[in-house]
Specification:
The chain has one helix and 19 strands. The chain is mostly beta strands and about 300 residues long. A hairpin with a 2-residue loop joins β18 and β19. The longest helix has about 30 residues. It is elongated. The relative contact order is 0.11.
Length: about 300
Amino acid sequence: MTACVYFWAKKEMKKIIFIIVLLVFQVKLNAQTVPANPIDTNYYRVVTTNAGDLIGKILSQDEREVLLETKDLRKLYIPQYTIKAIVLINSNDFNAKGVYVGEDKFATRYFLTTNGLPIKKGEHYIQWNFFGPDLQFGLGNNLGVGIMTTWIGCPIIASFKKSFELGSRAQLAIGGLAGTGSWLAPTSFGVLPFGSLSFGDRKRNIAFSGGYGAFSLEGDVSGRPMTSVAGMAKISSKLSFVFDSFILLPSGQSDPYGYYQPLVALVVPGLRWHQSEGKAVQFGFGGATVDGELFPLPMIQWYRSF
């Protein structure tokens, strides 16, 4: 009887040892197993030097190339040396049809006026007009400064704008312009403090602005209140609709030469064509009224980032 118990216990002990060894082996095997990399389902905008912007999912990348899968399931190998930037795309960067629209690079500007959105730090640009250049610089902390002039260097006008976030889709900006007649009229100068309240983002926004412009011409000072309603909407990856207005309210006073200061209004709807990253041209089909008299005022402007 004792022998039977001994052999039974020995047999059961072997089973227990076998199970323990099996469990230890399984734990070590799991510890050595490398978990699979999670699948990246995000969409990215790959900005290249020779193929423009490419939109898709990044399947893999190394120091030599990036493998991108586009929305139509094509797979593209993009050499790293041709890539300027890789930008994560949010879901709201696509329209209702699933087509990528993205932000407007120059969403802080219309034809003449601005809004509460700040120029991003380091995103400087120049706006070329028929009458001359306008340079704007993003300094960070929601502060931007600029300078504009004509092809003959008269006048020369400096500007600044400080923006404040009022909410996720509301902004306030305060700023001003100050200029001089430079070499042509060195004793003449003007100032224009302004404020702008805008709603929206860098794809769609509307702005309500107002200010007071005062100038001195040969020692005679006069001024007028002015206001503006403007807006823009990115309607595709290459096209934005832009609307601007600029209204000089009538003044009960005469200008330095004794002339009555009537209502002056400028309304400019137009389109902005985004040629490539940091390059755009916009066409305005504007009209102006001066004391009730209407006349057309077409506009064309070029934007370049630097």
